[in-house]
Design brief:
Strand content of chain A: 15-25%
Number of helices of chain B: 4
CATH architecture of the largest domain in chain A: 3-Layer(bba) Sandwich
Largest interface: A-B, 45 and 29 residues
CATH topology of chain B: Ferritin
Largest sheet of chain A: 5 strands, mixed
Order of helices and strands of chain B: HHHH
Oligomer: heterodimer
Largest sheet of chain B: none
Distance between the termini of chain A: 41 Å
Shape of chain A: elongated
CATH topology of the largest domain in chain A: FAD/NAD(P)-binding domain
Number of helices of chain A: 22
CATH architecture of chain B: Up-down Bundle
Radius of gyration of chain A: 30 Å
Helix content of chain A: 25-40%
CATH class of chain B: Mainly Alpha
Helix content of chain B: 55-70%
Shape of chain B: globular
Strand content of chain B: under 5%
Radius of gyration of chain B: 16 Å
Chain lengths: 695, 151
């Protein structure tokens, strides 16, 4: 066979006569996307995503079916071909119906493979569930107790009755780890010979340390406190998060090789300048540990303290003395935690004063209910205006409020009612009205007016190269899972920085979505019967309000299996191998560029081993041709014409009615997730951004 | 009250007060070594400059824009302890200073409206008082967002 000389992307190249441009380019190391081409099938040239430019021809040509000719000049990577490919992909995505990742996963800031671990739990693979979670998040036992569950807001099960108890299920494998005494040591890359200083052993710092140790860096963690955890230790009481859970999860990070230096305060015991000199990179996870003072007259009297000051002191000593009558000012989780903690210390009367109404309280509804069950009183539409000493106690003057116009957060602004002042006598006042960032010890960094550190959202890079920041010290006081996610993103960016790579943080692939809850077709939820969400077992109020025993006792195995079985397994079984998703990511495709009708949601689950989701099919015809050319079968075929053309089982029957043992073989010809094996459960796939393990 | 014999004189007084505010924040910013406070004070000076320009525009005829919004008085500043302005103060303190200054201006114009008899001047002082109330409201809203987020 003769050898042909041609030009490929400006370079001299050769190919055997009869070789397609696609094969010749691949041989030369160039990537050309294709859906309809399959080595075992004849060229079909229907998807056109493999189009390339051949000089002298007006139109682009499909590289899968065009053979190389002597002297041909071919461009496979110029703007014209890239633009054509993107247009093809935009068109394919314009009527595509399906989700790459489940809405729970995209709602979770840490991006945990939720359908994956829930499926493992449902099928009794608790260790696999544990490992899958650990791959995307440290501190699962902590967050499984205190996370505010953004994932559940996206859960489609609520279209049937209630969202799956994702957060409580996330706790279950870590409970099993303790119960079963599992040896836990996440996989780790070889050392990269770089060291990183992490300032702050709260959720963001611990998360960054966890990943950087896995990436092969050597981390030293500095923290001003005497123990790790940051706000999850010093801001959350032990009846919600027992300290052995924090210690156990930090021990895993220590086993990965991180060194912890406690009682070491930035700006006092060590400076940023010193850390920059001693370490290859610095990650600041300082938290938002300053309390907003009430600034009312008398707020500096003895007996008045901030919520985080109070919770921090109790975290160090759960036998602290407390007055008989305690008032907590505020409506967030810190206020609720402070009130419930005051009860546990022995206060006889604990009241929460809040400026708005209960519905506007930022605290978790379940936590408010739990506090009320324990005997905490809630006074809404009341604000403190003055504190005075009286005898051994305090006189607190308050004013009644009424709600005015809504503010930027949508909450109505409270306005004082003239002449409604009243006074109460109390022993202690705890102000839990907000937290701030104190960044005065890193004055050389660019900060916002309110003191939070300015850092890139994706990488955590601050105004000083090599110094990164994340968590509450960047965002202001926020939920723990956001800090964990920020630590993870920063760890990826710091690794890239240390290795001299482009800093992009933790890149996410293209994600297609069926939309918000109100856009989901009824056919999606129709197969599911109503099943009650399993409530988390907990201690009775009378047995818990006087001690620091953990209130929520965790799911039993039976409960966890039943709750996990409620998962509808949204997301695509093929998300991590799907060519459409891969190419959409590579070429920056957009599903909304071309408006038009969407495909009808049609899922065929009838077959014993196969699932066919017609709404995900891109009509490449590979399965139809495989039937015809290789399997001598007609089980799949085209039906309809033009825009209405669809690939369907023969005679549009259910797959279960097609008597062919060849059907499962078609899965390997489907480049997307239209034809999948039931055994390829979402849980068996690698999660996003999985870690490289040691070779 | 001879100072306030005409609308022009009254607006000149108000413009002068806004310039005093610009100078006050600019001066503090220049003295501050704290980068984030410096940024805050420069921003506050910019806000006051905007107020001054609005009044200058009113003097030139664009009068309708002044005091045309009646903000709800959140009265957050009424219950905050006074803060002594300093180049080392916190952002929270800086906001308290700003709220208190706007409240003082709002109250001043409100009082002046009661002291003059010319109905055109009464209307102008009431407008200026509403305008300062709007400024106070924006600082109080910022205070609420940053320092009363859980309350």
């Amino acid at each position: 066979m003769s050898t042909l000389n041609f030009t490929l992307n400006g370079k001299a190249a050769t190919a055997k006569a009869g070789t397609t441009i696609l094969d010749a380019a691949e041989e030369a190391g160039y990537f050309i996307p294709t859906f309809c081409h399959h080595k075992e099938l004849k060229p079909f040239a229907s998807c056109f995503v493999c189009a390339v430019e051949v000089e002298g021809r007006r139109s682009l040509v499909p590289s899968c079916s065009t053979e190389v000719l002597e002297g041909m000049v071919v461009n496979t990577e110029n703007e014209r071909t890239k633009s054509a490919r993107k247009t093809c992909l935009d068109l394919l995505l314009s009527d595509h119906v399906g989700d790459c990742l489940g809405p729970c996963m995209t709602s979770c800031p840490a991006g945990i493979d939720i359908p994956g671990f829930v499926n493992h739990i449902a099928e009794g693979r608790d260790r696999e569930a544990f490992d899958l979670i650990a791959n995307n998040m440290p501190l699962a036992g902590c967050l499984g107790r205190v996370c505010t569950r953004p994932c559940e807001t996206g859960c489609r099960r609520q279209l049937v009755e209630e969202p799956v108890a994702i957060c409580q299920l996330k706790r279950f494998p870590s409970d099993q780890a303790i119960k079963q005494g599992w040896e836990i040591l996440p996989s780790k890359n070889p050392p990269i010979g770089k060291n990183v200083a992490i300032v702050g052993a709260g959720p963001a710092g611990l998360s960054a340390t966890y990943y950087l140790q896995m990436f092969g860096a050597d981390c030293t963690v500095f923290d001003a406190h005497e123990a790790p955890g940051g706000m999850i230790r010093y801001g959350i009481p032990s009846y919600r998060l027992p300290r052995n859970i924090i210690d156990g999860e930090v021990a895993v990070i220590e086993k990965l090789g991180a060194v912890f230096k406690y009682s070491t305060k930035l700006g006092v015991d060590v400076s940023l300048e010193e850390l920059k000199a001693e370490f290859n990179a610095v990650f600041l996870a300082l938290g938002a540990q300053s309390a907003s003072g009430m600034r009312t007259p008398g707020d500096d009297l003895p007996g008045v303290k901030s919520g985080i000051e109070f919770l921090g002191a109790v975290s160090r000593d759960e036998t602290l003395p407390i007055g008989k009558t305690v008032v907590v000012v505020g409506g967030g989780n810190t206020a609720i935690d402070a009130a419930r903690t005051a009860l546990r210390l022995g206060a006889e009367s604990v009241s929460i004063l809040y400026r708005r109404e209960r519905e506007q309280m930022p605290a978790w509804a379940e936590e408010i209910d739990a506090a009320l069950e324990e005997g905490v009183k809630l006074e809404t539409l009341v604000a403190p205006v003055k504190i005075e000493p009286v005898g051994d106690g305090l006189k607190l003057t308050c004013i009644r409020m009424e709600l005015g116009e809504p503010d930027a957060s949508g909450r109505c602004r409270p306005v004082p009612v003239e002449g409604s002042d009243f006074s109460i006598e109390v022993d202690e006042i705890i102000a839990a009205i907000g937290q701030n960032v104190d960044s005065s010890m890193v004055a050389e960094l660019d900060t916002t007016s309110w003191g939070s550190i300015n850092a890139d959202e994706q990488t955590g890079q601050t105004s000083i190269p090599g110094v990164f920041a994340g968590g509450d010290c960047v965002t202001g006081a926020d939920i723990a899972v956001n800090a964990v996610a920020a630590g993870r993103r920063a760890a990826f960016a710091i690794r890239q920085y240390l290795l001299g790579e482009e800093m992009v943080g933790d890149p996410k692939g293209y994600n297609h979505s069926m939309g918000e809850l109100d856009q989901i077709p009824a056919a999606v939820t129709q197969p599911f019967e109503k099943e009650r969400r399993i409530p988390m077992p907990h201690l009775e109020a009378k047995n818990r309000a006087t001690n620091f025993e953990e209130v929520e006792t965790g799911f039993t195995e039976e409960m966890a299996r039943a709750e996990a079985a409620r998962c509808m397994e949204c997301g695509c079984r093929d998300a991590h191998e799907c060519s459409l998703r891969d190419f959409a990511t590579r070429f920056g495709a957009k599903p909304d560029r071309f408006a038009g009708n969407k495909r009808e949601y049609r899922r065929d689950d009838s077959h014993a081993v196969l699932v066919y989701e017609e709404h995900k099919c891109i009509q490449c015809g590979s399965c139809v041709r495989a039937c015809d050319e290789l399997l001598n079968s007609s089980c799949m075929g085209f039906a309809g014409r033009g825009f209405e053309a669809r690939v369907k089982p023969a005679l549009d029957r259910k797959l279960a009615l097609i008597n062919s043992g060849e059907l499962p073989k078609l899965v390997e010809f489907c480049p997307v997730g239209a034809l999948t094996l039931k055994s390829d459960a979402v849980a068996t796939l690698q999660p996003e951004g999985f870690l490289k393990t040691e070779e | 009250m001879e100072k306030f014999e005409s609308i022009k004189q009254t607006l000149d007084f108000a413009i002068e007060r806004e310039q005093e505010a610009v100078d006050f924040y600019t001066g503090l910013a220049e003295q501050s070594d704290n980068a984030s406070l410096k940024k805050t004070l420069v921003a506050f000076a910019g806000v006051e400059k905007g107020h001054k320009e609005k009044l200058q525009a009113a003097k030139a005829g664009a009068f309708a824009a002044v005091g045309n919004v009646q903000s709800i008085d959140l009265k957050i500043g009424d219950y905050l302890v006074d803060v002594q302005p300093s180049p080392e103060m916190s952002f929270q303190d800086a906001l308290v200073v700003a709220i208190k200054r706007e409240k003082a201006a709002m109250d001043l114009y409100s009082d002046l409206a009661k002291l003059v008899s010319d109905s055109a001047l009464v209307a102008l002082f009431e407008k200026l008082s509403r305008e300062e109330g709007t400024h106070k409201n924006s600082f109080e809203a910022a205070y609420e967002e940053h320092f009363l987020s859980e309350n």
